[in-house]
């Protein structure tokens, strides 16, 4: 009888640990998805030429990135993302935001290629005039570096399956 109780107890503990691990994995994936969506919001604000919205979206990105465990994204990568997004959030100068967005995009592209950030494909898009890329959730070109001045400048260079 004692063996049966012991086996049941071990089994219950194992199931509880599996449940906690799954919850942790789901929370991590949710944070990564939020990070990618925050990035897309920055991009969309730059496409629209809305410096205030880009700044606010970058603040959300920073808060989200600060909530991600270094076991998921390395400390160095998190700091690089925080530096880039922080620079976007600290200014209302659209030209400066777009310059910093190029570095943020390069780091996000590298990250998207190394870990799963979302459930839908991300599209690496390249602007030959700026000689910079960005991530998009759509194959439709909407250039964040030039906005309405050159809205459709660029092309999809890679589909990153998430």
Summarize the structure in words.
The structure is a single chain. The protein has 162 residues and is mainly alpha-helical. It is built from four helices and three strands. 61% of the residues lie in helices and 10% in strands. It has a three-stranded antiparallel beta sheet. Helix 1 (2-48) packs antiparallel against helix 2 (51-66), helix 2 (51-66) runs antiparallel to helix 3 (75-89) and helix 3 (75-89) runs antiparallel to helix 4 (94-114).
Unreliable runs: 18-23
Number of helices: 4
* Biggest β-sheet strands, sense, barrel: 3 strands, antiparallel
How far do the termini sit from each other? 49 Å
Helix fraction bin: 55-70%
| Rg, Å, rounded | 20 Å
> What's the rounded overall pLDDT mean?
88
Q: In what order do the strands lie side by side in the largest sheet?
A: 2-1-3
Strand content: 5-15%
Q: In terms of structural class, how would the helical and strand content be classed?
A: mainly alpha
Order of helices and strands: HHHHEEE
Overall morphology = elongated
According to DSSP, the number of beta strands is: 3
Summarize the structure.
This protein is mainly alpha-helical and 162 residues long. It contains 4 helices and 3 strands, in the order ααααβββ. The protein has a 3-stranded antiparallel β-sheet with strand order 2-1-3.
List keywords for this structure.
162 residues; mainly alpha; three-stranded antiparallel sheet
Reconstruct the topology from this structure:
Elements lengths: L1 H47 L2 H16 L8 H15 L4 H21 L7 E6 L4 E5 L18 E6 L2
Antiparallel strand pairs: 1-2, 1-3
């Amino acid at each position: 009888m004692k063996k049966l109780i012991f086996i049941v107890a071990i089994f219950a503990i194992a199931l509880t640990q599996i449940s906690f691990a799954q919850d942790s994995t789901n929370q991590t994936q949710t944070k990564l998805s939020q990070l990618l969506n925050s990035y897309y919001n920055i991009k969309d604000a730059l496409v629209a030429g809305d410096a205030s919205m880009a700044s606010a979206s970058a603040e959300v990105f920073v808060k989200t990135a600060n909530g991600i465990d270094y076991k998921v994204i390395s400390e160095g990568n998190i700091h690089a993302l925080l530096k880039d997004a922080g620079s976007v959030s600290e200014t209302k100068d659209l030209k400066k935001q777009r310059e910093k967005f190029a570095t943020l995009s390069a780091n996000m592209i590298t990250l998207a290629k190394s870990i799963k950030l979302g459930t839908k494909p991300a599209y690496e898009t390249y602007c030959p005039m700026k000689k910079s890329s960005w991530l998009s959730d759509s194959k439709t070109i909407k250039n964040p570096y030039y906005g309405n001045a050159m809205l459709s400048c660029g092309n999809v260079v890679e589909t990153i399956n998430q």
